[in-house]
Structure formats: C-alpha cells, structure tokens
Amino acid sequence: MRKTAADLDIEIVHGKVTGTGSHAEDTTVYRGQQSATVYRTPEIWLRDERTGREEHIRDHAVDGTRKGHELVIVRSAGNGALLRVANLHTGKMFDYGDLAPDRGAWTVIRADFWKLFTIYLPAVLVAKALGSATGIEGGPVGWLVGLMLNILFFACFYLGWRAAEDRAAKAEERQAAVDDIFRREGWIVDDVERDV
C-alpha cells in the first residue's frame, strides 16, 4: 500500500527559491583582548507552488542554493522539524532526524547509556537500599543479587543496541516511503546524491 504525506505525518513544500541570505550570530569573548566570532547560517525564501505561500528556511543544507533553484522540503507535520531538503537543480538531497538511518557507534553508545541510566542504575539503587534495610548485603543472597545485576548490566547493552537498530530500521522504512512519494511526483532519480 502506497503511503501519502498525511500517512507519514509530514508536510511537503515544493517550489522555487525567491531569495537567499544568511543569518549572522556573533559571540564576543573577553579574555584580555576583545574578539568576536561570527557564525553564518544560510537561509532561503521558497514560494510553495501549491499554496503560493512563501516559506522561510534556515539551515546549512540550503548552502549553495541560488534564486530560481527548485527545492522540495519535507518537514514533520507535528513540530515542523526539517526532515529532508532536496535541491532538484543541483541533484543533492539531505536527510535529517526520522529520515536519516544512523547505525554509527555514537548512536549505539547513546542508546546503551540511556538503558543503563533508566534500567540498570535504578535496579542498583533499589538493590542497595533493600540490602541495607534488610541486612542481607553479604552471603549467598548478596552474591546472587550481584550476579543478577551483572547480567542486567550486559542485558542493558544488548537492549540499547537493539533499540538503536530498531530506530535505524524505522528510519529506513520511512525514508523509503518518502522516496516513493518523490518518485511518484517526479522529484527524484535513483542516482541522486544523498547527504546525511
């Protein structure tokens, strides 16, 4: 069954760039001498061909975009978070968030630490409190509780790895559904350069 934008809880804006610019933010640091660092974020104004409304987008993915370029922007319908920027003029596409499957080491490590923080740490604190309150910290019961906590420790790493894998699989599935919408609309070719 083919999914629509509404099924995926996304908004799609397709149109031509009417203006470009950059948003500057500066930070002044005082350390004996005054110095300033300027950060520039590219921004564009895009006229949606369906509604005629002009949309403002500020993100590094629009860097290099010029007036007249045709873009397709995919945002989350709920919070407006940017999920994809596709520049049809240059043939480049950037995916973010729920459309960017990430199986990198840092993603797995973050998921592991989250499981350790939400499962293992409370279990250790409860075991310690119960052991102190009941006086059975040592001996065979204490040894058994320690063994169970060690097993739980390694189980948390497995659960974190599985959670990261599941999140990446869902992102791949959602990305494929959005790619299907792009193909139906004629916005994508299979040899598009995809940056994540």
Keyword list:
alpha+beta; 196 residues; 7-stranded mixed beta sheet; OB fold (Dihydrolipoamide Acetyltransferase, E2P)
Task: Give structural notes.
This protein has 196 residues and is α+β, with helices and mostly antiparallel strands. It folds into two domains: 5-98 and 185-194, OB fold (Dihydrolipoamide Acetyltransferase, E2P), CATH 2.40.50; 105-165, no CATH class. The chain is 39% helix and 32% strand. The protein is built from two helices and seven strands; from the N terminus they run ββββββααβ. The model has no long low-confidence stretch (mean pLDDT 81).
Oligomeric category: single chain
Structural class of the helix and strand makeup? alpha+beta
| Terminus-to-terminus distance | 27 Å
Task: Report the CATH C-level class of the largest domain.
Answer: Mainly Beta
> Runs with pLDDT <50, length 5+?
none
Domain count, please report it: 2
- What is the CATH architecture descriptor of the largest domain? Beta Barrel
Nearest-angstrom radius of gyration? 25 Å
Residue share in helix: 25-40%
Q: Count of DSSP E strands?
A: 7
Number of helices: 2
Overall pLDDT metric: 81
Could you tell me the CATH topology label of the largest domain.
OB fold (Dihydrolipoamide Acetyltransferase, E2P)
Strand content: 25-35%
Shape: elongated
Order of helices and strands: EEEEEEHHE
- Describe the main β-sheet briefly: 7 strands, mixed
